[in-house]
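Hello K.,

You asked for the raw outputs rather than the summary table, so here they are, unedited. I folded two proteins back to back in the same session to keep the settings identical. This is the first:
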Amino acid sequence: MKKPIYMDHAAATPLDSEVLLAMQPYFSEKFYNPSALYLAAKDTSKDIAAARTRVAGHFGARPAEVIFLAGGTEANNLAIHGVMKKYPEANVVVSAVEHEAVLQPARQYMHKEASVTADGRVDVSSLAGLIDDQTVLVSVMYANNEVGTIQPIKQVARLLSELRKRRKNSGNTLPLYFHTDACQATLYLDLHAARLGVDLLTINGGKMYGPKQSGALYVRTGVHLLPQILGGGQELGVRSGTENVPGVIGLAAALDLAYSRRSKEVERLQRLQTLFIAMVEDKIPHVLVNGSRKHRLPNNVHVTFPGVDNERLIMALDEAGIQAAAGSACSASSEEPSHVLRAIGLSDEEAQSSLRFTMGRTTSEEDVRYAVDTLVRLVV
């Protein structure tokens, strides 16, 4: 039987063999609790410190600005709750296409949701109209997990910088922080926090060939978060709990590999993406390609086949050996159409006729051609 063609890398990536090799000692001979006082445990603590320094280097940050957590969802929750619980009378502004790990925490406070254009990009001028004197946090994801659209993060950062100056001149002492969920962007885009202009940034190991339930939050010096998990005071007092040492080591190793392979992999995936879109538009009448053509992650192809039930199509693709998705894996059990697709203007019927294909390191040109030919057989 032909090996399945995996095209759901936005949901999860396989653990890289080099990452696994780096992690293995910490499951057995280096199993120690890093908080213990004997030398072997202190050596493990030093390994965590070294991993933190490596991750910080990719952010252009200090080691003390990196907090290790159990994945992107926890990191996003810490960013939102950690700020908003400190300023309960303030409000938070998020984009309408954020992951639920940002939307749901934000909705527990006074919040506003910024609309996006038909290609999924936040309109910065419209965003500016939602930010008032009581806004303490703005969260706009770096790249969307469903349609792959890359957001104008630097433009948003410049807007917030100007608004901070106006606040200072008016005597308003409320801070205005900028958070970005970079979980989908980590493999393909620059994460240097200063160049992006962000105060908080989330990454997730399970989306970049690292271990699941590993993640990190960049927290700029001067941003003080209220801890959400209390206990022994680990992770610089922000996130208590005995460290997941294999996860930390694996996260750092995966991020190192992502940076070393980024340029060639982006170029390779862009070629495959161009081929996929050209073939599907040529062979399938009335197909719609969702998301930005210009500002798009190189591995993402999101398409609508009007009148086709996406769940049945996914099952038929699976039988043909192709693994794809209807949208975010985290909301796959929901009967509701994707909030992202609604936000870009698709009807519920169109949303329920849409599929996401996300390619990765093992995807070949042969895989793309087979996937499109199979779609033609099933849809046309």
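The second followed immediately with the same parameters:
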Amino acid sequence: MTLASGLDAGASPGLHALARYRSEFPIFRETVYLNTCSLGALGERARRRIAQFVDVWQARGAAAWYDVWWAALGELRARYARIVGASPEEIALAPSISVALSAVAEALDYRRRPRVVVTSLDFPTVAYQWLAKRARGVELVVVESPDQVSVPVEAIARAVDDRTALVATSHVYFTSGAIQDIQRVADVARARGALTLVDAYQSVGQVPVDVKAAGVDFLTAGGLKWLLGGPGIVLLYVRDELARRLAPAIAGWFGHKDQFAFDPRALELHDDARRFELGTPALAAVYAQLGGLDYIDEIGVPAIRRVTSALTEDLVARAREYGFQPKVASRAEDRSAIVMLPAADPAAGVRHLAAGRIIADARPGHVRLSPFFYNVQDDHVSALERLARHTGH
């Protein structure tokens, strides 16, 4: 895919079809922002939604719970469901991926199946959840990456056996931006009677996701990054049959089927994925996420993917021209909009970029750039030029 494939008719060179949204993200008035994989830029629609929440809070106080705020939670579950190809009844809300993982982890039976398989490239939160359960007999198996870019599904398959309860891994690796074939992973797990959980924090919003087509059992993602909703709100997809059958051993009043009964002697969980919910959702975050989804829904993830793929490929090609050796998947179709540039001192590189009003991020051994639909070619060209001067490329 070339950058030209995303151009508007008559647009200036380097501008693509979605560049018209750039003006709705005020951060670009002062800086070049190439760090969506850490935190999505704040859009005016999200800001207006937050203001709407504050205005209702000020005007109505707790009375807003019974209609406006309750409806907002239902709207968010439905919109999250739509973006991952699920039904609203299969979506639970949580404040973080860690909390969502905890609810799943406390619903599994490890007596006959004590093993959980992860990969060395997954965000550590995934592994930590089950490392914390070693005293209860849970065994964590970490599948190594031969190239630090991706993990062959065949290697995951060799780690899965009849004692495996769960394969928990990423859709897009935060360490390399490589896209994993989660359908193949789910097939491998299912063949041995294991379940599959996908951490899709780095994919949902920039890469199309269909939980039904992939055949995964659990999937979690959220507002912080590519869904433009900021911190404090995530989704947990639980496959319908599991949502009815599994019962988390941690609980909160939002998971109770009749939460306003206020009966401390009985816990009856919801009949759907809401049984995995715990405490009162952070409504400011809910409203911010609804505003972020206004962009994602209006544009559509396939259109976002086309533009970000074109920007990513241009970024990778230009980085190589400057003498960098990007750590990315070998095939363009396996690359997300996360580009890792090896660096001797990544933190110093990021500081140098920041001094030029270019926001990127550092990960061990790499400067990380992540274009999104509101970026343009000039953004990553400026970043590469400044980084090359700093590193002597």
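Residues 7-11 have pLDDT under 50 and may be disordered.

Happy to rerun anything if the numbers look odd on your end.

Regards,
P.
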